[in-house]
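## retry 2 of 3
previous attempt timed out at serialization; input unchanged, resubmitting
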Amino acid sequence: MFSNYWKLAFRHLARKKVFSFINIFGLTIGLTSCILIGLYITDELSFDSMHQKADRIARITSERASGGTISAFATTGTKAGPQLKRVFPEVEDYTRTLVYSSKVSYGSSSFTEPRFLYADASFLNIFTFPLLEGDPAALNEKTNIILTASTARKYFGSADPLNKVLRINDGKDYRVAAVVADPPSNTQLQFDFIVSFNNLAASRYEQWYTANYVTYLLVRDGHRIPALAQQINSYMESPSTRQNAALQGKDYLHYHLEPLKRVHLYSTLEGFTPNGSITYVLILTGIAILILVIAGFNYTNLAIAQSSSRTGEIGVRKVLGAVRAQLFLQFTGESLLITMIALVLATVAASQLLPVFNGLTGKELHVSSLLRLRPLSLLLLTGLVIGVLAGAYPALVLANTRIVNILRSGFRVTGGKGSLRRTLIVLQFIISFFLISATIVILQQIDFIRSKKLGLDRDHVLVARVNSRVLARYSQIKSAMLARPGVESISGSHDLPISARWGDILEADNGRQEVHFPIKAIPSDMDFLKTMKMQLIAGSDFTAADIPTHVDENDSVTPVYRFILNETAVRKIGWTPQQAIGQIISRGVPGIVKGVVRDFNFASLHDPIGPLVIFADTQWVQYMLIRIKGDRMPATIASLQSTWKAYAPDQTFEYHFLDEDYNRLYQVETRTASLFSTFASLAILLSCLGLFGLSALSAIQRTKEIGIRKVLGASLLNITLLMARNFVLLVGLALLVATPLAWLAASRWLRSFAYRIDVQPWVFLLAGATGILLAFLTVSYHSLRVGSRNPSETLKTE
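## retry succeeded, writing output
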């Protein structure tokens, strides 16, 4: 019996080639999308789960209130980890970490390494990075260094790396004491080198503030993390701790504990690497389901619509004694066969498209992730569920067809009024319109971000990293580069002007009261404002005389520094820009306000502009900012390279454009836009594909009606409009339902940006016009094809 069912199924597929192709192709697209999105979601949800103690690890984040301003940081001071271990028995261990770009040399080879990690000796005990060779306690010695496997190959090839010596920043030698496996892509802790945290000057003293270090706790019981966080903040509010941390009035310093496996998707504070977003994971999950639903709807719709062509077969089988269960099993089996064919094709397609998908998402997903027992079992289960769900209703319709109805209609049962088919068409296009509208809004916001006036000019600005060796010759290199044709101006800074991270507490007396609040700070060279084309609205810019040659950090009286404040900082103090000039303020060390700059965005557009102080101090410069003319860029860059080589022959001139750093701030949004546009296109393609099949079937069923209408004088346009009208009305209804849903979703997403576009009505009009036009063209193809036939051909068999 079952072999007979398979034969009938294959014969039906071969006989109905067009509709079989539409069903298989649609399901293949839907399943391929699900497989790719499933791999992405699995990778996101698995972040940091490879660490054996992951459930007991928490990242400490700090929340600081000062002068009525609350600031949050993913970092802490050096005291948080050791003090919490001393006070709370629940804390088993801690590790403080800092990633810092460093120059690494071996023999004649020298590289600037951005992933150079400083960590406490407990790092490898807390986190699971398999030791390949060497001493597991290597970080107990300050002169030891640990390499990843790929880094060891980079410097030493196939030779044994142990006990080799690397020179760091031309100042200190480290012995390779261990090699660990490369960090997988789905961990936030990315590094190439590890050395002891004790090599940092900050390790010699413990401070609550100077929050530059990402600190992790290993607790004895992971379930106690929320309770421990409450105990920690009670401790931080105790009088002795407040006094030790120099907290006054309503100021406070609180710590929050983020479970390690939740940091990547749930934290709003970035640490080692940019965070993902659970919101985007849920959105992509929804998209995968919606695309699969559209593909399933296509199959169900076409199967119901084709029921009229199979009533003769059903009637004969019932006369010969077939019962409902047998008919249901036969037609459900056909659905499963189509789904299994699509599943095999989708698996092959997903493996081939994976490199393209990696390019869209920035992931490093591999086919091996797909070819394991668990994902393959899940795929098979998904195929079975889809096959049963998509085929169940058509199978019931066909199995329940009564012989008397078949005989009355002359073996043509149309499946009722088609209300389910119309409902499924509307649902398909609701999903499509929703995705199209959301995609347009995301692309608009990304375009707004890229074109927004930031209060500075980021175009044609080269960024070159400055290490200690280059910093020692910074003035000579800068002067030589300025003499090159095509160079407009040069400055330097500790942080990039679009992503300031240095934090201080600013103190000032506005004549009525003393104020203090957290403030972002940018140590810079002179000409910083000129190079970035910022607008000075009061006072004057830095000069060479403003750059201190020596600063006594213990001197809290002598105003050594010169400061430039932004408008927000001046307003927060309570001055006008003109009143601020010449005033003495302090950011730990005192200084004189020399200028006020117009507000500019020094952080992501997700956040409003906050208070900022720029102070002249070249000892902190990490980036050289070089503004060049756009008309002779290649020649200018070549001359800069030769100048750099003349002064730092052993240091490669590694540069990039500031625009690239700015775009990296919005990688998540850009990738989301790419994914949305890709899958929205697939959704509309699937919807139109289903509409194509239904309109083809409708045209076949109405062939003789069209022939009669032509004989009675109907034009080709009349016939086309007649055929398209019902379908286009359904698409229009879908637009009416999808518009408010898309508007609500887009408005909610845009709230995450401090600077954003307004959702315009034309977005939904464009989405609707696109969908209606595609639907009309899809239906019209068959209308024109049938309508152009000679009526004598269509009526001669009547």
